[in-house]
User: Which sequence fits this backbone?
C-alpha cells in the first residue's frame, strides 16, 4: 500500500510523539502501578453478581504488582515498535488496546488487597453510556447533513421531563417513551425550521433551545410537579434479561441484562452504521453534508434530507432523554441531565461522526463516569472530579489534532440556499 | 472561510458609516444597529421581540394555572378573570420588583453588573468572528482567582481590592486565551473548545473547593473561605442592609466604555473587527490573525473573569460550586440582544438585570417561579436572531436578514 509507505513529515512526527507517549506511559505504569503496588497484595475482581445465572463464577485474582509490571513491559514493547516501525493502519487499534491495558493496570493497583465487582461496574458503565450514545447519534445525524445540533442537552432534558410526566399521568411507562420521542421530534422541528427555513445561526438556536428547555422544565417542575406529586411518581421500566444471551457469563450481565434503552441504543448504532455507509440513503445524506451544491445538482433534495435527519435526531435524543427518568430513577428533577448533552457532543466528535465511533466514545465516557462513582470506595486518593473531567479533556485533545484528527462534514454549519 | 454571496447577509458591524456624524447619540446608534437599517425597524425588532416574549410567557403562565384551567368548563367568565389576575399579578410583581422604589433599582443594578461584563465577553468575540460560549467557565476561573487573592492576602483595601479584581481579570484571560490559542495554532473550533473548557472549569471548581487550601475551615460542604472585607467591592449604602448596590455596576460601565474605546478608537480594535469581517483579508493586509485570535479571546475572558470577580467580591463574598449561576450562558443571549455593541450590551444588561430582580420578586409575591425569566430570555433571542418571525407575526418591515456569526466548525 503506497499510502503506508509514503508518509508526510507531519505523520512521521505524530507517530514519533505517539511512540514516546507509549514509553512515558510504560514508565509511569511501572513506577506507580507496578512498583507502587508491591506488597499491596492481590486484587479480587468480581466476575458475576448474585442474581446472575452463573453467579458461582469465582473472583478473578490479579496480583497487582506483577500485573502492573507486565503491562509496563507490554506498553514499552508497543512503544518501541511504534517508534521504529510504526503500526500502519493498526495504529488506532493498538492505541485502543494500550488504553485498555492501562485502565486494567490502574484498576489492579486501585483494588490491590481488596475485592472489586468488575462486572457490576462495567454494567453500570454501559448503562451510563446509553444517553450519551443517543445524544451523540442525534448530533451525528444532524451534522452528517451539515446542521449543527448543540441543543442535544435540551432535547435530552425535555425527553426526560415529558417521559416522566406522561408515564405518571397514564400510569404506564410506554406512553412516556412515546411522549419523549414526540417532544424530541418537536424540538428537532424547531431547530430544523429555524436553521433551514429562517437560516438562523445554528449555534445560537442550540444555545437558545437549551436555555428555553431548562427554563420551561424547571418552571413546570415547580409550578405543576411539585404541587401535584402524582404527576411525577417515578414510573420506570425495569431491566429485562434477554433469554439465552443474558445468561452468558460476564458478557451477559454487562450487555444483555439491561433496560430496553441499552438494547435500543445498540440496535440503533448498528442500523445507522449500515444505512449511513452501505445504502443509497446514507450516501445521499452524506453528500448533502459534504457538498450540498453538488448533491443538489445531481437531483438530491437537500432540504428534505436536512429536515428528515434533524427531526430523526430530535426523536433519538428525546428517546435517550427518557432514560434519565423512565430508564433509571423514574422521577424528574430540575436540570437532571447535568451536561450529559455536552458529553454526547464530545462523544460525537471523539467518535469522528461515525455511529460505531460514537458508541465507543460513549462507552469510554460512561466508564469514566461509573469509575468516578467507585473511586471513593477504592480509596485511591484520586479526586473523582478529574475522572469526570476526562471526557472533555480527551475531546480537546482530539479537536486539536495532537492524537488523530477528527474531521467534520465539509459543509457543517453552513446554510444552503437553492439557486 | 468566506461566505458565498448568495447568503445576502451583510455584516452590520464592519460596514463603513457613510455620513460621519459629530453627535455621539446618532453615531452610537448607527454603530449599534449598522447602516442601512432605519430608526423605526432597528428599534422595532428588539421591542417587539421583548413584547412577544412576554406575551408567550403570559400564555405559559395561563396554561399552567391548573385551578383556572379546571374552571374553564364550568364558568369561563370566572376562569378568565382568575387567569388574567394571575398573569397581571405576576407581571406587576415583575415590574415592581425591578423598578418600583429604591430597593428594586438597587437590585436591578446589582444584577445588571455581572451580566453586562459577561455580555461584553461574548460581544467582543462576536465582533472578531469568534463565538465565545465559554464565558461561564471564564467567570468561574476568574472568580476563583479573585477568591484566593481575597482571602489569602491581608492588605489595605486600596491595594487589596484592585489586586483581587486583577486576579479575576487574569484568571479569566488565561482560561479564555486557551481556546484562542487552540483556534489559532491548531484550528480547533472555539465553540467546541469553549464548551469543553466550561465543563472542565465546573468540575475543577467542584474539586478545588474541597481542598484544604480553599475550603472554609470547619465546613463539610464545598464552600471557600470568606473574602476579607478589604477586598470587597464598596457598597453605596453600607448602613442599609436592603440596598445591596455596590461598585460593580460602575465597574461594568467602565468596562463597557473601555471595550468601546478599544474596539472603535484603537488600531488593535480595528484589527479585531477586520479579522471578524474577513480573516483572509486581514491576513493579506498584514495582520497576524493568529495573535488576534489569542488576544480577542484573552480580552473576552478577562471581561468574563471580571464578571466572576464582581460576584465574589460583590454580593457573594465567597465561592460556591455554581456561583456563576448560568450568567455566562445568559451573556450569549444578552450579546445578541445588544447587537454585540458595548452600548447595546449595557442596555440589554439593564433589561436582563431588571428581569432577574423582578423575577425574584415575582417568585416571592406570586407562585410563578423565576425560571419563567429564562424562557422569556430565550424567546427574546429567538425573535432577535430570526427577525423574519417578527415580520411574519406583526406584518412589519424589519430590514435585515437573520444574523450569522459562526461559520460552523468545518474548516
Assistant:
Amino acid at each position: 500500500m503506497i499510502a503506508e509507505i509514503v508518509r508526510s513529515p507531519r505523520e512521521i512526527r505524530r507517530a514519533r510523539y505517539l511512540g514516546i507517549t507509549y514509553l512515558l506511559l510504560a514508565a509511569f505504569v511501572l513506577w506507580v502501578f507496578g512498583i507502587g503496588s508491591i506488597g499491596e497484595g492481590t486484587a479480587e475482581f468480581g466476575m458475576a453478581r448474585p442474581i446472575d445465572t452463573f453467579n458461582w463464577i469465582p473472583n478473578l485474582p490479579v496480583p497487582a504488582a506483577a500485573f502492573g509490571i507486565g503491562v509496563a513491559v507490554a506498553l514499552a514493547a508497543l512503544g518501541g515498535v511504534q517508534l521504529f516501525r510504526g503500526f500502519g493502519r493498526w495504529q488506532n487499534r493498538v492505541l485502543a488496546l494500550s488504553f485498555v491495558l492501562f485502565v486494567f493496570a490502574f484498576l489492579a493497583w486501585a483494588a490491590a488487597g481488596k475485592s472489586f465487582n468488575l462486572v457490576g461496574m462495567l454494567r453500570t458503565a454501559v448503562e451510563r453510556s446509553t444517553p450519551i450514545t443517543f445524544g451523540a447519534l442525534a448530533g451525528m445525524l444532524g451534522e452528517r447533513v451539515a446542521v449543527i445540533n448543540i441543543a442535544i442537552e435540551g432535547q435530552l432534558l425535555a425527553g426526560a421531563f415529558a417521559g416522566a410526566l406522561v408515564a405518571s399521568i397514564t400510569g404506564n411507562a410506554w406512553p412516556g417513551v412515546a411522549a419523549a420521542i414526540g417532544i424530541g421530534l418537536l424540538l428537532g422541528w424547531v431547530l430544523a425550521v429555524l436553521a433551514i427555513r429562517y437560516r438562523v445561526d445554528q449555534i445560537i438556536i442550540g444555545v437558545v433551545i437549551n436555555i428555553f428547555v431548562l427554563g420551561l422544565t424547571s418552571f413546570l417542575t415547580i409550578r405543576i410537579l411539585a404541587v401535584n406529586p402524582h404527576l411525577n411518581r417515578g414510573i420506570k421500566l425495569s431491566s429485562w434479561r434477554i433469554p439465552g444471551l443474558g445468561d452468558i457469563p460476564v458478557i451477559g450481565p454487562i450487555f444483555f441484562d439491561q433496560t430496553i434503552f441499552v438494547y435500543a441504543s445498540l440496535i440503533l448504532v448498528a442500523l445507522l452504521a449500515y444505512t449511513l455507509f452501505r445504502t443509497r440513503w446514507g450516501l445521499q445524506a452524506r453528500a448533502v453534508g459534504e457538498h450540498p451544491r453538488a448533491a443538489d445538482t445531481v437531483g438530491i433534495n437537500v432540504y428534505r434530507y436536512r429536515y428528515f435527519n434533524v427531526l430523526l435526531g430530535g426523536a433519538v435524543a428525546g428517546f435517550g432523554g427518557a432514560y434519565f427518568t423512565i430508564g433509571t430513577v423514574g422521577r424528574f428533577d430540575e436540570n437532571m441531565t447535568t451536561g450529559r448533552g455536552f458529553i454526547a457532543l464530545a462523544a460525537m466528535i471523539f467518535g469522528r461522526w461515525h455511529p460505531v465511533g460514537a458508541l465507543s466514545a460513549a462507552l469510554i465516557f460512561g466508564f469514566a463516569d461509573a469509575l468516578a462513582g467507585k473511586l471513593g470506595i477504592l480509596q485511591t486518593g484520586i479526586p473523582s472530579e478529574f475522572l469526570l473531567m476526562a471526557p472533555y479533556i480527551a475531546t480537546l485533545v482530539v479537536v486539536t489534532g495532537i492524537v488523530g484528527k477528527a474531521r467534520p462534514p465539509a459543509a457543517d454549519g453552513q446554510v444552503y440556499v437553492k439557486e | 472561510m468566506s461566505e458565498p454571496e448568495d447568503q445576502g447577509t451583510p455584516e452590520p458591524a464592519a460596514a463603513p458609516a457613510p455620513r460621519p456624524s459629530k453627535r455621539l447619540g446618532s453615531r452610537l446608534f448607527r454603530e449599534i444597529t449598522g447602516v442601512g437599517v432605519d430608526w423605526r425597524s432597528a428599534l422595532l425588532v428588539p421591542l417587539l421581540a421583548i413584547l412577544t416574549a412576554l406575551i408567550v410567557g403570559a400564555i405559559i403562565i395561563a396554561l399552567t394555572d391548573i385551578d383556572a384551567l379546571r374552571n374553564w368548563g364550568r364558568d369561563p367568565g370566572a376562569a378568565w378573570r382568575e387567569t388574567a389576575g394571575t398573569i397581571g399579578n405576576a407581571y406587576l410583581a415583575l415590574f415592581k420588583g425591578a423598578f418600583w422604589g429604591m430597593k428594586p433599582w438597587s437590585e436591578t443594578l446589582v444584577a445588571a453588573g455581572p451580566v453586562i461584563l459577561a455580555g461584553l465577553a461574548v460581544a467582543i468575540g462576536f465582533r472578531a468572528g469568534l463565538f465565545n460560549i465559554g464565558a461561564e467557565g471564564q467567570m468561574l476561573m476568574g472568580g476563583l482567582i479573585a477568591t484566593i487573592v481575597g482571602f489569602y492576602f491581608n492588605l489595605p483595601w486600596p491595594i487589596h481590592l484592585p489586586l483581587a479584581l486583577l486576579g479575576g481579570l487574569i484568571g479569566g484571560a488565561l482560561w479564555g486565551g486557551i481556546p484562542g490559542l487552540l483556534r489559532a495554532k491548531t484550528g480547533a473550533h472555539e465553540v467546541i473548545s469553549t464548551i469543553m473548557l466550561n465543563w472542565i472549569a465546573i468540575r475543577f471548581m467542584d474539586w478545588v473547593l474541597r481542598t484544604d487550601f480553599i475550603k472554609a475551615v470547619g465546613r463539610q460542604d464545598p464552600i471557600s473561605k470568606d473574602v476579607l472585607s478589604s477586598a470587597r467591592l464598596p457598597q453605596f449604602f453600607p448602613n442599609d442592609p436592603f440596598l445591596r448596590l455596590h461598585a460593580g455596576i460602575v465597574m461594568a460601565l467602565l468596562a463597557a466604555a473601555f471595550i468601546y474605546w478599544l474596539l472603535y478608537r484603537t488600531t488593535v480594535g480595528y484589527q479585531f473587527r477586520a479579522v471578524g469581517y474577513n480573516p483572509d483579508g486581514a491576513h493579506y493586509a498584514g495582520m497576524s490573525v493568529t495573535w488576534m485570535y489569542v488576544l480577542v479571546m484573552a480580552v473576552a475572558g478577562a471581561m468574563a473573569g471580571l464578571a466572576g470577580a464582581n460576584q465574589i467580591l460583590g454580593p457573594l463574598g465567597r465561592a460556591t460550586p455554581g456561583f456563576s449561576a448560568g450568567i455566562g450562558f445568559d451573556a450569549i443571549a444578552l450579546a445578541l440582544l445588544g447587537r454585540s455593541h458595548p452600548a447595546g450590551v449595557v442596555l440589554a444588561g439593564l433589561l436582563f438585570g431588571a428581569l432577574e430582580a423582578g423575577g425574584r420578586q415575582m417568585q416571592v409575591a406570586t407562585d410563578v417561579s423565576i425560571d419563567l425569566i429564562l424562557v422569556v430570555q430565550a424567546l427574546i433571542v429567538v425573535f432577535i436572531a430570526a427577525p423574519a418571525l417578527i415580520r411574519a407575526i406583526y406584518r412589519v418591515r424589519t430590514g435585515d436578514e437573520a444574523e450569522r456569526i459562526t461559520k460552523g466548525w468545518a474548516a
Remarks:
- Chain A has a mean pLDDT of 88.
- The domain at 120-400 of chain A is CATH 1.10.3470 (ABC transporter involved in vitamin B12 uptake, BtuC).
